[in-house]
């Protein structure tokens, strides 16, 4: 019965376990923050459509020459008319095309903002997943040390002499064991917090993360530098610059007044009816349009400078993150290939010494040193993958 229950629990854990690639794919489809941007992106189609429409016409209704002595008599004079008219503003040649191009440019800014948000979300998922992995690895190391220390204490109690010195050694070992248990409890709390953040980022319920991290030789720095223009925020900066240029074009065309055509029908009681046609234009004589053009050109220049500055910023960040990547890789190689093998051999020697009645002081010191080295190794792997995640985000990758 117990075996069956354990098997069922294991199956549930496996079913709820998720791989990082699957989490990222699900998040890009379901996360509410991305869906909100997508809705705003869909709403951006409306300004594109309305940019091609004329302004609403004005309906004009009026009565002329109302005599106060006999206001209901509309046949005394020829100027007594009842008027119904329409007034329509006609956009100057090229304005509708410019408005449409500006609306499309603004939508492109929003699109690249969505892409940048996706990259940022993927980066945060990766960093949080690597934090989860790091805590789980720390827990595994601590649990292994608790088990090893417990076994060594049992061996020591069998092979050592029961004197005051051995009693002190056992008390010291028990203290180390308690410290490891306290550390395990703290790590469990950290793991719960990390999973809570990962569940939010992933927009789904996660009970276990199936992830394995292996440190390989980093790609050359030139690879990242050659892809720096794929940065999604850089794409957004370029789109903002193009949108600013479209706004300059609109402001330049604003110096060309839109003519207004008015057609009115005049009805007279005792005389013939007649039509009236008129055309009106605004006179841009006060310089308001000139100020708008100057302001929009400065905005376009600012957007161009931001675009150039961002590319330099990306280059600097790539160098910084790559330096962190190389450092983590070197530290990992030293620990794995040089230091840990020596510690493992020293553990074998210390275990044999305990079986021959040696004290546990050296063994406890080895446990502390191994814990420190394992933590440094785990941190090096987490730093390596964290730097790699940030590098991937800087070149616009969403995987």
Notes on the protein architecture:
- This protein has helices spanning 2-16, 20-30, 32-43, 45-50, 95-159, 164-202, 221-226, 232-253, 288-355, 361-394; strands at residues 17-19, 58-63, 82-89, 208-210, 260-267, 274-280.
- It is an alpha+beta fold.
- It has one domain: Outer membrane efflux proteins (OEP).
- Strand 5 and strand 6 (274-280) form a beta hairpin.
- Helix 8 (232-253) packs antiparallel against helix 9 (288-355).
- It is elongated, with a radius of gyration of 38 Å.
Number of helices: 10
Structural class: alpha+beta
- Radius of gyration from CA coordinates: 38 Å
Output the CATH homologous superfamily.
Outer membrane efflux proteins (OEP)
Strand content: 5-15%
Distance between the termini: 43 Å
**Assembly status:** single chain
Domains (count): 1
Weakly predicted, low-confidence segments:
1-16
Order of helices and strands: HEHHHEEHHEHHEEHH
What is the residue-mean pLDDT, rounded to a whole number?
A: 86
CATH architecture: Up-down Bundle
Q: The biggest beta sheet, please?
A: 4 strands, antiparallel
What's the total number of strands? 6
* Text of the CATH class: Mainly Alpha
Helix content: 55-70%
What is the CATH fold-level name? Outer membrane efflux proteins (OEP)
The coarse silhouette is elongated
Strand order of the largest sheet: 2-3-5-6
Summarize this structure briefly.
This protein is an alpha+beta fold and 399 residues long. It has ten helices and six strands, in the order αβαααββααβααββαα.
């Amino acid at each position: 019965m117990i075996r069956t229950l354990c098997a069922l629990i294991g199956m549930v854990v496996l079913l709820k376990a998720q791989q990082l690639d699957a989490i990222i794919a699900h998040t890009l489809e379901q996360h509410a923050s991305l869906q909100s941007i997508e809705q705003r992106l869909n709403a951006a189609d409306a300004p594109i459509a309305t940019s091609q429409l004329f302004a609403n016409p004005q309906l004009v209704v009026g009565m002329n020459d109302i005599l106060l002595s006999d206001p209901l008599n509309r046949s005394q004079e020829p100027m007594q008319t009842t008027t119904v008219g329409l007034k329509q503003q006609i956009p100057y040649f090229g304005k509708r095309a410019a408005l449409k191009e500006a609306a499309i440019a603004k939508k492109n800014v929003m699109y690249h903002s969505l892409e940048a948000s996706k990259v940022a979300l993927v980066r945060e998922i990766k960093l949080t997943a690597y934090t989860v992995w790091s805590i789980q690895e720390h827990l595994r190391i601590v649990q292994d040390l608790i088990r090893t220390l417990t076994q060594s204490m049992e061996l020591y109690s069998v092979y050592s002499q029961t004197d005051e010195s051995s009693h002190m050694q056992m008390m010291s070992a028990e203290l180390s064991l308690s410290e490891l248990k306290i550390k395990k409890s703290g790590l469990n709390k950290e793991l719960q917090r990390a999973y809570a953040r990962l569940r939010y980022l992933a927009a789904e319920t996660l009970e276990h993360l199936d992830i394995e991290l292996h440190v390989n030789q980093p790609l050359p720095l030139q690879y990242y530098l050659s892809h720096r223009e794929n940065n999604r925020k850089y794409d957004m900066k370029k789109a903002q610059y193009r949108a600013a240029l479209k706004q300059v074009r609109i402001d330049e065309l604003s110096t060309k007044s839109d003519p207004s055509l008015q057609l009115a029908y005049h009805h007279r009681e005792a005389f013939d009816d007649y039509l009236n046609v008129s055309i009106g234009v605004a006179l841009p004589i006060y310089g308001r349009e000139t100020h708008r053009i100057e302001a929009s050109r400065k905005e376009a220049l600012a957007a161009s400078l931001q675009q150039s500055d961002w590319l330099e910023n990306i280059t600097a960040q790539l160098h910084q993150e790559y330096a962190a990547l190389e450092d983590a890789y070197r530290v990992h190689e030293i620990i794995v290939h040089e230091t840990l093998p020596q510690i493992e051999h020293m553990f074998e020697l210390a275990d044999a010494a305990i079986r021959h009645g040696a004290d546990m002081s050296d063994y406890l010191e080895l446990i502390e040193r191994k814990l420190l080295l394992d933590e440094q190794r785990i941190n090096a792997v987490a730093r390596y993958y964290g730097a790699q995640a940030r590098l991937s985000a800087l070149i616009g990758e969403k995987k």
